[in-house]
Amino acid sequence: MKVVTIIGARPQFIKAAPVSRELRKSFDEIIVHTGQHYDKNMSDIFFDELNIPKPDYHLNVGSSSHGKQTGEMLAAIEEVLVKEEPAYVLVYGDTNSTLAGALAASKMHIPVIHIEAGLRSFNKKMPEEVNRIMTDHVSEYLFCPTDTAIQNLKNENVTHNVFNVGDVMYDAVMYNQKLATDSKILEQHSLESKGYHLVTLHRAENTDFPEKMQNILDAFKQIDKTLVWPIHPRTKHKLEGYGINLEDVPNLKVIEPVGYLDMLRLESEAEKILTDSGGVQKEAYFLQIPCVTLREETEWIETVQNKGNILVGSDTKKILEAVNSEYTSAYEPAFGDGDSAKHLVDHLKK
Ligand code: UD1
Ligand code: UDP
């Protein structure tokens, strides 16, 4: 049976690695790369190091406004679906690539499989929240990573074919954690274990507002430790546009985005992780590194409930308080058993 998988952004490549490995044991998979992310270190690097099968179709959609980007993907995905006539279309998470894939398929009456279904921030100003709600409501199979996600869907009366299979990002960490110990990223940047905090920032809710970015950088300046920051291209471009120069923050070590294995090593050896990324919040929790989340709310509420994560938004004082306080998560296995990909494929085989 044929499954067309739609991916396009960095976290989707990482999620696809464990799922494709498992899916291909029982299904014929066709991979479509929308081209939402296209720099080598935002795309190709993950295919190479995680052994993800090369895309069968590359749509080369690239960057643009939400409507244009999603619309171009929608039209191009439809053409692929007409040609391939798959039994299912599989989408991950909450990006514009996810929404385009789900919409194209559902209009053609092809059942949609949504992996990482049911997440909610309850903030509809986030583009991701709109993408998630729309995708969940047109999907046929909804694979949730947590009980909270199941409950969110119940609250919206979505209960058919909804399963908690755990989080495929936990599978990815379990599979790659040991391989990541061979990474030389610390040595390359003369870093010592626990001698730095790790930063990632890319959410529109921060990067679209120069005053929020300035508040965050004001906090960074006052932190008495090196901050290693593999900078997302969106953030780099935005800061350039605002005329904000990161060289004004002397303890910042800004580096290019890194591959997944280097990232896992950077996360594992950091003292704390400061981020607005969904995936990085979870990885901090899996690796038991205290996390400071530069957002007002999180979909990954279990990381906060289990005391591994503090929400601080872009408030300078709150960021400093969280960075200077002591806490480590009392790890509770809230994200499955590391075999989520197998569980979800087992459901599809039934
Ligand atoms: C997208 C997702 C977000 C996800 C993130 C993962 C949407 C609405 N957002 O955000 O949910 O958390 O990916 O990283 O789908 N750019 C480059 N090179 C690239 C990719 C992007 O230079 O390879 C720059 C361009 O200036 C582009 C900007 O980044 O305009 C934003 O890219 P886009 O894919 O639209 O959104 P992200 O912010 O990456
Ligand atoms: N990541 C990476 N290199 C980097 C930054 C992040 O490999 O330089 C990985 C990170 O470990 C996680 C995923 O990318 O697995 C998270 O993606 P991102 O933060 O772009 O998106 P989000 O999860 O917020 O949607």
UniProtKB/TrEMBL annotation:
EC number: 5.1.3.14
Keyword field contains Isomerase: yes
Residues of the UDP-N-acetylglucosamine 2-epimerase domain: 24-349
EC main group: isomerase
Coiled-coil stretches noted in the UniProt entry, renumbered to this chain: none
MF GO annotations: UDP-N-acetylglucosamine 2-epimerase activity
Record has Transmembrane as a keyword: no
Domain of life: Bacteria
InterPro entries per record: UDP_GlcNAc_Epimerase_2_dom, WecB-like
Alphabetical UniProt keywords: Isomerase
Similarity section: Belongs to the UDP-N-acetylglucosamine 2-epimerase family.
Protein name per UniProt: UDP-N-acetylglucosamine 2-epimerase (Non-hydrolyzing)
Annotated organism of origin: Metabacillus sediminis
